[in-house]
From TrEMBL:
Cross-referenced Pfam families: Aminotran_1_2
Keyword annotations from UniProtKB, A to Z: Aminotransferase, Transferase
Signal sequence extent: none
Top-level taxon of the source organism: Bacteria
Cofactor requirement: pyridoxal 5'-phosphate
Protein name according to UniProt: Aspartate/methionine/tyrosine aminotransferase
SUPFAM superfamilies assigned: PLP-dependent transferases (SSF53383)
Listed GO MF terms: pyridoxal phosphate binding; transaminase activity
Domain Aminotransferase class I/classII large, first and last residues per copy: 31-383
Length: 393
């Protein structure tokens, strides 16, 4: 039996690697999980009622692109949040989680060649692993651009040489950034969009952490593209209810962009997609329409920022995140630090190198650990104090 080689060189995924590192060692105390970005705050109680009220929709195949009500609610949210008016028939589609969209958008939109050469897909480094796999799946070359303290923890795509940019078909960018919590400013977006206009590539804007922030709401790529008068197909937006509304299991995501972009993505999904069940679409429409629970959720994370800032005050290199719910903590060696914290305290964190690419000495995540601020506040505080005293004490 033969198997394809195209994915044979993929590194082990982050969490199997973490289990291999930690699980044959006993924890050094009560276990506190700070590895995975799975929200723990309560979702709105009325979501269950909406699902029950619409349970009869389980009898029917759901609309592939999302119900009209769901697409309308998504467009209304984009208008409120980004000040951009979109047509629910032409500019948006519901996703079964953003990972599906981030992958399938590359499948539908990345050309086989760019200027007569193998296309390049730009990825920040560290990065969400689906970016790399999407690039490999379409036969493109993933090109990893370091997002380090020197670049404000966002990739400096403008510094790439013309021979790379001329081959670039897609640039993934995550703002607020996972794992660093950095936010792309209006000027950053304007520079990137201008670069994409000059070299004719698409921007895949992964803004899934956009509703968790300290003070000001992060600027959105669609807003800046509209203000610049950029090509209507230039920016493709992705977002979801997972972080915004603590509904990771609902799997309600969105993709928004130009009409030709959505035409191609919808066509692929007609053959390969798995739409949300009808009752879940009904619930998602209600959730996208409500901001009260989002404000309450954001306040809980803002309180956790305050806890982290207090615990790590005075720790050299501590960078308070601008947004999102991760700490990106500097250490001498991420793997060694994660193992020490687990064995000494029972706190479970993720080595930064598992979220990045590069050989030892060239991996921009190897001197960091990622810490998820998702546990209840008191548990979070205990875990952060244990971690601080173990690593920085």
């Amino acid at each position: 039996m033969n198997f394809p080689d195209r994915f044979s060189n993929l590194p082990a995924y982050a969490f199997p690697r973490l289990r291999a590192l930690l699980d044959h060692h006993a924890p050094g105390g009560e276990v506190v999980h700070m590895t995975i970005g799975e929200p723990k705050h309560d979702f709105p109680a009325w979501v269950t009622d909406v699902i029950v009220e619409n349970a009869h929709l389980f009898q029917s195949y759901p609309p592939n692109e999302g119900s009209h009500a769901l697409r309308g609610a998504i467009c209304d949210w984009i208008a409120r949040r980004y000040g951009v008016t979109l047509d629910p028939e032409q500019n948006v589609m519901a996703l079964n989680g953003t990972r599906e969209g981030l992958y399938n958008a590359a499948m539908a939109l990345c050309p086989e060649q760019k200027n007569g050469q193998r296309p390049i897909v730009l990825c920040p480094n560290p990065f969400y692993q689906v970016y790399m796999v999407a690039a490999i799946s379409v036969g493109a070359e993933p090109h990893f651009v370091p997002a380090t303290a020197a670049t404000g923890h966002l990739p400096d795509y403008a510094s790439l040489p013309p021979e790379v940019l001329n081959r670039t078909a897609v640039a993934y960018i995550c703002s607020p950034a996972n794992p660093q919590g950095a936010v792309a400013s209006r000027d950053y977006w304007a520079e990137l969009i201008g670069l994409a206009e000059q070299y004719d590539f698409r921007i895949f804007a992964d803004e899934c952490y956009s509703e968790i922030y300290r003070d000001a709401a992060p600027t959105g790529a669609l807003t800046v593209a509209r203000d610049m008068g950029a090509h209507p197909e230039r920016v493709v937006l992705f977002n979801s209810l997972s972080k915004r509304s603590n509904l990771a299991g609902l799997r309600s995501g969105l993709i928004a962009g130009g009409p030709e972009t959505l035409k191609h993505v919808k066509q692929l999904r007609n053959y390969s997609g798995a739409p949300l069940p009808g009752p879940l679409q009904a619930a998602a429409a209600r959730v996208w329409a409500d901001e009260t629970h989002v404000e309450e959720n954001r306040a809980l994370y803002q309180a956790k920022y305050a806890v982290a800032d207090q615990v790590f005050a005075g720790v050299q290199g501590y960078m308070p995140p601008e947004a999102g719910f991760f700490l990106w903590l500097p250490v001498d060696d991420g793997e060694a630090a994660a193992l020490k914290v687990w064995r000494d305290t029972g706190v479970r964190v993720l080595p930064g190198a598992y979220l990045a690419q590069g050989k030892p000495g060239q991996n921009p995540g190897e001197n960091y650990i990622r810490v998820a601020l998702v546990a209840p506040r008191e548990e979070l505080q205990r875990g952060l104090i244990r971690l601080r005293d173990c690593i920085y004490g």
